[in-house]
Write a structure and sequence with these properties.
Elements (H helix, E strand, L loop, with lengths): L3 E3 L1 H9 L3 H14 L3 E3 H13 L3 H9 L5 E3 L3 H16 L7 H11 L3 E3 L3 H9 L6 E2 L6
Parallel strand pairs: 1-4, 2-3, 4-5
Helix pairs in contact: 1-2, 3-4, 5-6
């Protein structure tokens, strides 16, 4: 199993364990790599989600578990790539928000595929000529 970057939706599915296929792939990934790989942007999105719905207990639990993840930073070079992607999407009338281009740029900078249930958004990035691999752990292998 190759190293990948989990999008926020997939991380949520792995943690909740509601989709048994996704949960099992998450377990297999941890067995192969020691921990799940996410971006700092995913941390921001998860914290924002808990904060927005005022779930302090879940927020505290998530924050206390961050050391268990491999968290890839959002650094200057990644920010430049994300800005290019975001600009190209806006210019071509295909905006997908700010977080997905940031997560895609993080994955691309690390040579990783993005694992997401939102394949359509990330496919727009690849369609613009960016070398982004996308996986959906819910799809049949």
């Amino acid at each position: 199993m190759d190293r990948v970057l989990l999008d926020t939706d997939t991380l949520s599915e792995v943690i909740k364990g509601k989709d048994l296929v996704v949960a099992e792939r998450g377990r297999a990934y941890v067995q192969a790599h020691g921990r799940l790989t996410i971006s700092a942007v995913t941390v921001m999105e998860a914290v924002q989600g808990f904060q927005r719905v005022q779930r302090a207990t879940q927020l505290d639990r998530f924050v206390s578990r961050l050391a268990a993840f491999e968290i890839l930073p959002f650094e200057t070079e990644v920010a430049i790539l994300a800005g290019r992607i975001y600009g190209d999407l806006k210019r071509t009338g295909q905006p997908i928000g700010r977080a997905d281009p940031m997560i895609a740029a993080t994955a691309m900078s690390g040579g990783l595929a993005v694992v997401t249930g939102n394949v359509a958004h990330y496919a727009r990035i690849a369609a613009l000529g960016y070398h982004l691999a996308v996986e959906d752990w819910r799809a049949a292998q």
